[in-house]
UniProtKB/TrEMBL annotation:
Residues 376-401 have a biased composition (Low complexity). This is AAA ATPase. It comes from Isosphaera pallida (strain ATCC 43644 / DSM 9630 / IS1B). Residues 344-353 have a biased composition (Acidic residues). Gene3D superfamilies: 3.90.320.10, P-loop containing nucleotide triphosphate hydrolases. Residues 333-407 are annotated as: Disordered. It comes from the Bacteria. Residues 432-784 form the AAA+ ATPase domain. SMART domains: AAA.
């Protein structure tokens, strides 16, 4: 334990703050993490009873983080800024100011987790609203100052200066002590931006507790400032803004931050030595205690027993600390935008803010001469420097990046489960468009997990198209049963109610009238104009790929025998001719007529015979006519035409705050497996055609496409059912367009490997055999095969492990239990049960809305909502 580690010890900024509060607090947390083998260092929170009623701190920080993530590309906020430019004023900002209104709309509609907000007390809601209003008023102040500056930047550039700086993650190695030993410190800033009022970078830390110890809070932000300057050469000033119960602001200039550097270095050197202390041999540097925090410290009962008197211990002497600027070494400078890391859950009541954990400042901490000079309230905003002395352009190195114009205002990461220690497991929303695979043996809880992911997508406003081969997903029609609801913690109960309020369920039964029926257009072709709009004429391969899939589907469904490749080539040429003629749909009978008489389809005399024999064409034509009038006719007659656009958008009577459509396509009423595969193939092709034509418009939200029991449609090996090529193509192309894929299977060996190679998120439940483990191991082509896979053999139901993009290190190799499901989950529903439940549900909707379905029957009902 006293040997120097070959790798520098790594501390988080939270640990540094904890050590500054009480060295023994830091020490006990370090030992606990080491002994229990935790994936991330445990940090004890210190609470103060007077701070129990707060303004919902975690809710506020998450909302502001989401707001800052999307504000730079929000068109309404940009328009409001430009309006302010053309209409400058010196009057105090009010809630009627255009910038305030635009920012408030963005924050309220897309950034606040309303399901959590509604569970808070009236006092907390009022405090939260007051904090948000003050935060927005300061934003208005900054933009108003820029509007009165004759050398102001464009509105877009100003918003980029305020919100586009993605350099929140800091990672720096310090060299401290006599031996210049290395210590790595990492953290994530609340907010870094270029402030034109002060002509420099500033780091802001928002607090929603009383300003009991502003100097203590400034210490942590000063460490951030030193690290950010080392990594990015920004020389930022720092500020701690208290928003509750009354607005106050405390600042340190960059010069004052530099004056505190020796104190920071001394603490880091001491932390390294404290972490090496051995209680058994009493060797190393014993950490001293801080008696003032003892009444609220969880370690107070064993502190003296293990380490002696609370004041017994020492720090590294200041003379032993190397504080030269040359002793600071940047280990990692990552200019790429950092993934959004959710606020850590608190160990006490939800959203209770910790007090200023530094109960006493570190020795020698430099404070502003008079803190009253640094307070900025709603009525007394911080006075900006005059334009005569302020630098009006930010340095080139600080220019932030503009996020994509099509980025979506997600509300919250996906809450999918809980670690054994109680830590929430949340999947970043940005991982969804990279596709997700859930695998687990029968009874492992894989469908439960996939349903959880579906519910989380819906809570974030993402439309869902769920393909249900057996009858498990139609149960989204109902919420969780009373027994499960009664056992849910309050927050999950609130999220359950929010989900049931928002989702608009449609149960689709192609080929039958058990629920809402849709029909397939035998051939629904993209027009050339539509295709060229989608890819702007730069990639004709997209068009050829879709047409080729359609041709393969036609030949497979006809099953005429003979040379499949020749027939596919002939049908492909036929479809190309029809597109050139401007035809977008055609019946089987019309296609059969063209097959018999190719001249009707634009073929020259004898051209068709070069592609396929006449005898095979005649047989193919007979089979196509059979499709129109035979046992498969149920797929093409009656019901609404299949429309992906209609599935992802709301009907007028479905609209409401946060409403989002959930489409379940129930296949178990179809005649056989071939019909199921044909419907899935047709849907995959239609989704591909739609996503190219949608062009990323905000009026066409990208959906989550959920395929349950994937092995029926994507078998491994050379077997190639009609559903396999279009599904593989959809998953490959969907990543580019933003369509989110989710597949679920109990048999990893039975599903085509190409599909899993397109799934960046892999969630693994219980596996049954070593062969399954070996197959899953092949999925992890990047990042190396995880060592924890063997632990998945025979594990408990509901236990999962996984990897996903931008996953926090603490989740690697850690099993987690799925969260409660907010929907019904029981045995698969038969077609008769689906019809009964749908009919009952339709009647309830009709009675509550007092409106009738447009066509009266359950088979094609378009059911209005309240």
């Amino acid at each position: 334990m006293n040997q120097f580690d070959p790798i520098p010890p790594t501390f988080s900024v939270s640990q540094v703050r904890s050590a500054a509060t009480c060295p023994r607090l830091f020490y006990f947390d370090t030992v606990k993490s080491r002994v229990e083998g935790l994936g991330r260092t445990y940090v004890t929170r210190v609470w103060k009873s007077s701070d129990r009623i707060t303004a919902c701190g975690s809710l506020f920080h998450n909302a502001v983080a989401q707001f800052q993530k999307h504000a730079s590309s929000n068109p309404e906020l940009c328009d409001a800024t430009e309006f302010t430019y053309h209409n400058p004023t010196t009057s105090p900002p009010t809630q009627d100011h255009p910038v305030f209104r635009a920012a408030s709309k963005l924050l309220s509609n897309h950034c606040i987790n309303l399901s959590v907000f509604h569970t808070r007390s009236p006092d907390q809601k009022a405090a939260f609203t007051q904090a948000v209003n003050h935060y927005l008023r300061e934003l208005v102040e900054i933009i108003r100052h820029a509007a009165n500056d004759p050398t102001r930047p464009s509105p877009e550039q100003l918003l980029l200066e305020l919100f586009g700086d993605t350099r929140r993650a800091v990672n720096v190695t310090f060299q401290v002590g006599k031996q210049n030993e290395q210590i790595n410190v990492r953290g994530i800033l609340d907010y870094i931006f270029y402030d034109r009022r002060r002509a420099g970078h500033w780091i802001i830390d928002y607090k929603l507790t009383p300003a009991h110890h502003p100097n203590n809070d400034l210490f942590q932000v000063s460490l951030y400032s030193l690290m950010h300057d080392i990594q990015h050469d920004t020389q930022p000033g720092v500020a701690v803004t208290y928003l509750h119960p009354q607005p106050q602001r405390f600042e340190l200039s960059w010069d004052q931050v530099k004056a505190n550097a020796p104190i920071v270095h001394n603490l880091l050197a001491s932390m390294r030595e404290w972490s090496r202390y051995d209680e058994t041999t009493q060797t190393g540097l014993k950490p001293p205690g801080e008696p003032s925090i003892c009444p609220s410290c969880r370690w107070r009962h064993e502190c003296v027993a293990r380490l002696g008197h609370r004041l017994d211990g020492a720090r590294v002497e200041p003379s032993e600390v190397n504080v030269n600027s040359s002793s600071l070494t940047v280990v990692k400078v990552d200019p790429q935008p950092q993934p959004y890391e959710p606020i850590e859950p608190l160990e006490s009541d939800d959203d209770v803010e910790p007090n200023g954990t530094l109960v006493s400042p570190p020795p020698g901490m430099v404070a502003p001469a008079d803190f009253s000079d640094h307070v900025a309230t709603a009525s007394t905003p911080t006075t900006p420097p005059s334009s005569a002395t302020a630098t009006t352009t930010s340095p080139a190195r600080s220019t932030p990046r503009l996020r994509g114009a099509t980025s979506k205002p997600y509300v919250d990461p996906l809450w999918i489960g809980t670690l054994k220690q109680g830590r929430e497991v949340r999947l970043p929303l940005d991982a969804l468009p990279t596709h997700t695979a859930v695998v687990g043996a029968a009874g492992s809880g894989k469908t439960w997990m996939a349903k959880v992911l579906t519910e989380e997508a819906l809570l974030n406003g993402i439309p869902v198209i769920a393909i249900d081969p057996q009858g498990d997903l139609v149960q989204f029609l109902h919420g969780a049963p009373a027994s499960r609801l009664d056992a849910m913690p309050p927050e999950h109960r609130a999220r359950h109610d929010e989900l049931r309020r928002r989702i608009r369920v449609r149960i689709w039964t192609p080929g039958s009238s058990h629920a809402r029926r849709f029909r397939l257009d035998p051939l629904h072709l993209p027009t050339r104009d539509q295709f060229e709009h989608a890819v702007k004429g730069t990639d004709q391969d997209e068009l050829q790929g879709l047409i080729s899939l359609t041709a393969s589907r036609v030949v497979a469904l006809a099953a005429a025998g003979g040379s499949i490749s020749q027939q596919e080539t002939f049908i492909l040429k036929t479809l190309q001719n029809l597109i050139q003629q401007g035809q977008t749909s055609i019946t089987w009978s019309e296609l059969a007529s063209i097959v018999m008489n190719p001249s009707q389809g634009g073929f020259q005399e004898g051209e068709a015979d070069l592609l396929v024999k006449r005898s095979e064409r005649e047989k193919l034509a007979r089979q196509l006519n059979t499709l129109q009038h035979g046992t498969s006719a149920n797929l093409f007659n009656h019901g609404e035409p299949l429309s992906i656009r209609r599935m992802v958008e709301l009907e007028p009577w479905e609209e409401g705050p946060g409403a989002v459509p959930l489409n379940v396509v129930y296949l178990n009423a179809l005649i056989d497996s071939e019909q199921k595969r044909f419907v899935v193939a047709a849907m995959a092709e239609e989704i591909s055609r739609w996503m190219m034509n949608a062009g990323g418009s905000p009026n066409h939200p990208w959906p989550l496409v959920y395929l349950d029991e994937a092995f029926d449609f994507l078998p491994a090996g050379t077997v190639k059912p009609v559903s396999k090529p279009p599904l593989i193509r959809l998953f490959a192309q969907g990543r580019k367009y933003g369509v989110c894929g989710l597949i679920c299977t109990q048999s990893p060996r039975s599903v085509d490997q190409n599909l899993f190679s397109n799934c960046s998120t892999k969630i693994i439940g219980r596996l049954e055999s070593a062969a399954d483990i070996d197959r899953v191991r092949e999925w992890f082509q990047q990042g190396g095969s995880p060592s924890w896979l063997n632990s998945r053999l025979g594990c408990a139901a509901g236990s999962f492990m996984g990897r996903w993009p931008n996953m926090m290190e603490m989740f690697e190799g850690q099993p987690f239990q799925t969260r409660p499901l907010y929907s019904l989950h029981e045995g698969a529903w038969s077609p008769e049960r689906v019809e009964q439940e749908w009919s009952r549900w339709v009647e309830i909707q009709r009675s509550t809305s007092r409106l009738d379905a447009r066509q009266g029957g359950v088979d094609s009902a378009v059911v209005p909502f309240r």
